[in-house]
Design a protein that fits this description.
The chain is an alpha/beta fold and about 300 residues long. The chain has one domain. It has eleven helices and eight strands. The strands form three sheets. The protein has a four-stranded mixed beta sheet with strand order 1-6-7-8. Strands 2-3 form a two-stranded antiparallel ribbon. Strand 6 and strand 7 form a beta hairpin. Helix 4 runs antiparallel to helix 5 and helix 5 packs antiparallel against helix 6. The longest helix has 23 residues.
């Protein structure tokens, strides 16, 4: 039986959202630091991964990953899901590594499209967890400086796994497979970069049968949360409509313009957020919090 979807994050009262102090949206200097342009790759199709079997009924077993999420993912009252990295036992670290290895051994070419999408999303998220666990404690995933290149930050460009004889990095999975093949902006709500500013790591694995429902819920949860969009109060200055830097870095995926981003947001916003966006014509600022999504932070 499928588990129920994640609860909706707590929404601030309308007045509080309209005049949200910057300190509540931004926790630390890293929040407002711009992301280097070379850290937001374009979607570049890798034809090798377009093969699939539309008639396949093969299901990938993500139970081991789901068990780890049950044990170590925590849902906080502020609407941000965090991971109890420090509590992860040695045998569970081994189980996480074994799960990643099991995904390496699968031939995704033999899966149908929905099963493939769930496979790659879970692969990305589990691999990110494994990278953080192997380098913990760190204050931010950007501090895991294992990518090639003198000025590179973070682990995203490092080839970490091998599937069907091809060495893959996290960037390969996100920007050369998921984004260009599916062309679905909701992918940004599904893949998790282990940061407070990122859309939540979901409390259960993605599956083909629940893929659409989970993507929709993840999109709404993020847009409705102050990390996605909020009106930020400024001392002696007009309030600013601020949005996640995800909408700036990957604007091309959200319609290619601020108008497209706002249209996307309105399509997923509910209640108070929908009211907040009514009549808005532009975004004043972008921000992102790279603090690790650690339950102790």
């Amino acid at each position: 039986m499928a588990k129920p979807g994640p609860p909706r994050p707590h929404l601030l009262p309308m007045r509080a959202r309209l005049l949200l102090p910057a300190a509540l949206v931004s926790t630390g200097a890293a929040t407002l630091a711009p992301r280097p342009a070379d850290a937001a790759p374009a979607a570049e199709r890798w034809p090798r991964w377009e093969a699939h079997d539309p008639d396949s009924a093969t299901l990938v077993d993500h139970a081991a990953y789901g068990d780890l999420l049950d044990r170590y993912l925590t849902r906080h009252a502020d609407g941000v899901n965090r991971v109890r990295y420090a509590a992860l036992r040695a045998d569970d670290r081994a189980a996480l590594a074994a799960y990643v290895q099991s995904l390496e051994a699968i031939d995704p070419d033999g899966l149908n499209r929905a099963e493939q999408m769930a496979y790659w999303i879970n692969f990305y998220n589990a691999l990110t967890l494994l990278v953080v666990v192997e380098h913990y404690p760190v204050a931010s995933i950007r501090d895991i400086a294992i990518s090639p290149g003198l000025f590179s930050r973070g682990p995203w460009r490092r080839q970490l796994v091998v599937v069907n004889g091809e060495a893959l990095s996290l960037d390969d999975i996100e920007h050369r497979i998921l984004r260009p093949i599916w062309r679905d902006p909701r992918i940004h709500y599904a893949v998790n970069c282990a940061s407070i500013g990122c859309p939540n790591l979901q409390p259960e694995p993605f599956t083909a049968s629940r893929l659409e429902a989970m993507l929709e819920q993840a999109a709404t949860d993020y847009v409705d949360h102050p990390r996605g969009v909020a009106m930020v109060e400024r001392t002696f200055l007009p309030s600013q409509l601020t949005a996640s830097s995800i909408y700036d870095w990957f604007q091309a995926d959200f319609g290619g313009s601020e108008a497209g981003v706002l249209s996307h947001m309105r399509g997923h916003a509910t209640g108070e957020t929908r009211q907040l966006l009514a009549g808005v014509e532009g975004i004043d600022a972008y921000r992102y919090d790279w603090t690790l999504n650690d339950s102790s932070s």
